[in-house]
Amino acid sequence: MATAPQMGWYERNGAQLRYKTSGAAGAPIVFIHGLTCSMEHWRFQVKHFSARHRVIACDLRGHGQSSVGNGPICMESFGADVAGLLRHLDLNDATIVGHSMGSRVVIETFRHVSARIKNIVLVDGSRRTTGGSADEREARIHNAVRKQGYKAYHLAQFGPMFTADSDPALRDTTISECAATPEAVGVASSVSSHRWDAGRIDAVLSGVSAPILVIQSTKPDPNTLRAPLHVGEVTDYMHYVRDTAVKAPSVQFETIPGIGHFTMLERPDDVNRHIATFIG
C-alpha cells in the first residue's frame, strides 16, 4: 500500500538537503533533477511510481529548498550528496534516474555507492565537447552573464529547451521556476557541467557496472542550442554512453520525438512507460 509523501532533511557539509519519500515498500526509485531545477519537476513520475515503489526525490545542493552549505557547487559534490542520501535512507537495489545535468550527478553517484544501485536511467542527458577548452567555456559563461545579466542569460539558455508546440503554460512556469535558483548556484553548476564533461565523464562512466537506459528527446544544435529528435533517431550522446560504459551489462535506448528538453514534463506517460519496462 502506498504511503503519504513525507518531507525530510539530510545534512552534509553544512547544507540542509531536502528530500521527499512516498509510495509503497517496493524497490526504490530515486529521481535527480537538472540544472537550476527542483524535485517538483519529477512530480508526474513520483505520483505514477508511488503505487508500486518506494520513491525518493531530492533538491540538489543550492537548488529548490536545499541550502548551499560549505561544499562546492559541482558535479562531484552533488554526486557525493546523493550518495550520502542513499546511505542515510539505507536504500539498496535502487534505480536512480537523472534528467539533464542530473544524468551527470547519477553517474557520479554510482562511483560512491555502486553496491546500492541496481539500474541507471539517463533522461535527455548530454556531453559538451565543443567550444574550446573548459577554461574557454567557463570564460564565455561569465562574460555572457556579465553582458546580458543573469535573467536574460538564463532565458536564452532555457527558452530553446522547449519547442513551438510545447504547452505555453508549462514552458513559462518551468522557466520561471528554474530562474528562481540563485545566480551563483546556476553559474557554478553550468561551469561545473562543462568541466566535468571535459575532465571526468569518460573515467566515471566507464566504471558504471549497472544496466543503463538512455531516454532521449533532444540533441545539441549549433543554431537553436537544442533540436527535437525524429522517430527512432539515435544521437551522438546515446552512442557515446553505449561505447564508453563498457562495464554496463546493457545499454538501452528510447527516443521520444517531437518535444523539448523537459522530457518527463512534456511526455510523462512515455517516460513512465519506458522506465517501468526497463526495471521490470
Largest pleated sheet: 8 strands, mixed
**In angstroms, what separates the terminal alpha carbons?**
19 Å
Number of strands: 10
Q: Given the structure, what is the number of helices?
A: 11
Shape: globular
Question: Helicity level, as a percent range?
Answer: 40-55%
User: Strand arrangement, largest sheet?
Assistant: 1-2-4-3-5-6-7-10
Would you write up a description of this structure?
With 280 residues, this protein is α/β, with parallel strands linked by helices. Helix content is 42%, strand content 21%. It has helices at residues 43-49, 75-88, 101-113, 134-148, 150-158, 168-179, 183-199, 201-205, 236-244, 263-266, 268-279; strands spanning 3-12, 15-23, 29-32, 54-58, 94-99, 117-123, 212-216, 218-221, 225-228, 251-255. It has an eight-stranded mixed β-sheet, sandwiched between helices. It has a two-stranded antiparallel sheet with strand order 8-9. Strand 1 (3-12) and strand 2 (15-23) form a beta hairpin. Helix 1 packs across helix 11 and helix 4 packs across helix 5. The model has no long low-confidence stretch (mean pLDDT 96).
